[in-house]
């Protein structure tokens, strides 16, 4: 984003001055954070008997985000969501974050402060401590590397590997909205490229933009599952698209799956924009990605408790490995899922 | 490095195929690794009562390394050393690693396998488990983000903050060799740029190349300190150069320091190449960086035990904060240390 306000060059502050400025105000609040930023490493002490979970993700300008329409505050928020989502997918409580930046000299300090404001906002919202990181020069665009940590009692941890025969496949939220938000932003970018005072046409699609630019991690699911005493048999976060992530879960659990096209939750705005763009909303749901919702399995016997959560939809069930992963259309045809791309017969 | 052998495009394998290929053979060996790669997050359980330490670093092509002379196996080894060095600087045992890559399509799978071979070699050597990571497209060069974890009993942890009045300043190994190794490689790159079958002149400087291309983390210090029952009062790893890292330690410990120029250990090859290049080896030691040695403080009363380690040099001592950080030359002059650059009077 063009910064009209004050512009401070990174070189004016130096590496340490910059890190101090960016991480000021990130005081640790979790009991499990013994020492945060400012040393060679952070020191953590998860509650006695609990396991530590850790995951890392990287985000590259021009590949994962386009700064011409991605406000840096939102980007800061979103990278936290993406990192935290992996912790939630283990049914663990996110507690710490480390953020490394690769920054080209064209980015002013104020822009990085915006990014960190978004990171701070997300950390505050979810009770997460920023405990470390690194800011380096990059020859090219912005690179953001995020490591998230969390903890959970061993018996509450959920892997991708535990799905059993006939388990129900459940998902939170709805799918494809983030992808359609991205399509909308790309369209407006193209349309407005040569216009002096552009007024992008987003009216009616605000939800899609929010799902793409500022997705919220499903921390609410953790508490809800605990309240209902549900421990899913397997779980994965939906970052690559339902088809790819379901196949990953099935591969890890050595099983197949059947999901029903008409049970895949798709928001009205997703369908509306897809229709406007002559696209298939189901393709967006299956292959769009970046939903940061959770896909999990529960035994058939837990159907009632699961529905009581009020937060999930049952979209199908687990089958033997030999049968593979299929999408069942309303007319009863079976379409084999593919991780990349979508069967031609449904795409049209 | 140009790959003369078989060239497989990353696209042939896809993201998951690539990750599978690269991480095959990285079976966890640490008791503290409950679950390694292959899930949304790794699961760790440090020994009962111990703290977890975690640090993250990123390395950018064109800034931190130049692939025209940096063999990828060595680079893999070196990024592990750099990450592990931060864990050692806490007096903690390194145990797990997560590696995220940003890879441009110009890099073949075989090159990434070389990189991972170096990572695997370093992990094997130091008993570290690779437990996670991510491989993504990058629009530009290679980006390597490494998160290292380790653990230690609380009473053995060493921060930057604990240096006390009159404590001795100790360093492991010698300084400036990595920087002179880099200078040598840069010189040969320039000299040989237009020559068909280049034969770079490295004879007599092999040690400098090794210190730059394949520095070893000082895991030996951990055991030695434990054997002698020494817990340093403060410690930092030497990655930015002695001047900068000493000033960081002093800032954290709210103290000053005096170090003696003629006590700074500098290898013969470092001095020889510096003289050949009309450079000052002390400048290389103070500001060169990437030594991955350890700087630590011990109470004056522990001088004898510390010398028994046989692995360290005492280069000075801690002073009150108000006096600042000084380098004392053999003729007795005091030169105030600066984090960036070196006093003109000594540079000549």
Mean pLDDT of chain A: 91
From the spread of the alpha carbons, the general shape of chain A counts as globular
| Distance between the amino and carboxyl termini of chain A | 36 Å
Q: Which strand-content bin applies to the residues of chain A?
A: 15-25%
Describe the oligomeric state of these chains in a short phrase: homodimer
Derived from helix and strand composition plus strand pairing, the structural class of chain A reads alpha+beta
**Secondary structure: helix percent of chain A:** 25-40%
Largest interface: A-B, 65 and 65 residues
Summary, kept brief:
The structure is a homodimer of 348-residue chains. Chain A is of the alpha+beta class and 348 residues long.
Structural description of this entry:
The structure is a homodimer of 348-residue chains. With 348 residues, the first copy, chain A, is of the alpha+beta class. Helix content of chain A is 34%, strand content 24%. Chain A has helices at residues 10-23, 72-88, 109-126, 177-192, 206-213, 219-227, 242-253, 268-276, 281-287, 303-308, 344-347, and strands spanning 33-35, 42-44, 50-60, 93-103, 129-137, 143-153, 168-172, 234-238, 256-260, 293-298, 312-319, 325-328, 334-336. The first copy, chain A, has a seven-stranded mixed sheet with strand order 8-10-7-11-9-12-13, with helices on both faces. A four-stranded mixed sheet of chain A has the order 3-6-4-5. In chain A, helix 1 (10-23) runs parallel beside helix 3. The two termini of chain A are 36 Å apart. Chains A and B meet through strand 2, strand 3, helix 2, strand 4 and strand 5 of A and strand 2, strand 3, helix 2, strand 4 and strand 5 of B.
